[in-house]
Amino acid sequence: MMTMSVFSQNYIHAAGLRGGVYNGFNYKNFFSNSVAFEGILLKPWKAFDLTLLVEKYHPVDRSRNFFLYYGIGGLAGFYDARYANILLFRGEMLLSDLNMNSAEYLLLSGLIGNLFTIL
User: What does the CA dihedral 7, 14, 57, 106 come to, rounded to 10 degrees?
Assistant: First the structure.
């Protein structure tokens, strides 16, 4: 008798580097066949971001290679406000008008997307 196991993903750990305006590092770990944790560390110019997400994956039409996923998590970071060109209070005040040197933020983050694996 032959048995076969089918898993949602064909990898457990993944890591990568980002380049460009948002330089950084990604790491993903699957805790089960359909649930993953993802951490994203970004270093934009004069800033720093850390995003932590929990993601749920669903195969499309019993496919082993195409998945839809959604997730929720948080984003924390800071930036040097002296170099930011961000408007506050409905565009009435620039950060430079507040005489701030840096600003911190903590946000709720969500995502939805698709994934296609080749192997």
Answer: 160
pLDDT tens string 40-55: 999 877 788 899 999 9
Residues 74, 52 contacting (CB under 8 angstroms): yes
All structural domains of the chain with their residue ranges = 13-116
Q: Which helix (H) or strand (E) holds 104?
A: strand 102-116
Q: Tell me: the pLDDT tens digits for 73-96? A: 998 988 776 655 544 444 444 444
Q: What is the pTM of this model?
A: 0.71
| CA–CA distance, 80 with 97 (Å, rounded to integer) | 14
| The one-letter amino acid at 51 | T
Measure CA of the first residue to CA of the last residue in the chain; give whole Å.
26
Judge contact between 95 and 104, C-beta under 8 A.
no
